[in-house]
Amino acid sequence: MRLSAFTVTESTPQLLIDMTKLYLPFQSNEAEIKNDFDELLQDSSKALFVAKFNDRHIGGLIMHYSSSALVLSCIAVREITQQRGVGKYLIQQVIEHARTQNFKTVKIMKTTQITPELSAFLIHQGFTVQDAALSFSC
Questions:
Q1: Could you give the angle at which helices 13-23 and 30-42 cross, rounded to 10 degrees?
Q2: Could you report the per-residue pLDDT of 73-107, keeping only the tens digit for each?
Q3: Contact between residue 49 and residue 15 where contact means Cβ atoms under 8 Å apart
Q4: CATH number, domain with residue 120
Q5: Structural domain boundaries, residue 104
Q6: Residue 47's Cα: distance from chain center in Å?
Q7: Could you give the number of structural domains in the chain?
Q8: In whole angstroms, what is the distance from residue 87 CA to residue 131 CA?
């Protein structure tokens, strides 16, 4: 099966199972994860972008739309699939999505979720460090 990445338009039982596995290390409550994803799918200023392999969602991030930048948050790849190119593919595909939507910049705000390892990974993918964000010029 082939690795794919896309914007989620509707929730499915499998998506919820996979997203719970993906984000449970960051949130301790499965009901809270379900509620957050239900709200996300109804918010037109945000979108869930996922990587999928063998009918399982193995990576994801949230895209926030602004006037000139696509702002990313909640970047995660299932631990069992890390170090296999999934994160790289996910970031490459979201950058391509940003280009097709005519965004000038992809940004990731520096928060406690942005670990030194994630920051180094993003810099390796072409992001540059700015004051309070990591930025990629499209």
A1: 120
A2: 999 999 888 889 999 999 999 999 999 999 999 99
A3: no
A4: 3.40.630.30
A5: 4-137
A6: 9
A7: 1
A8: 24
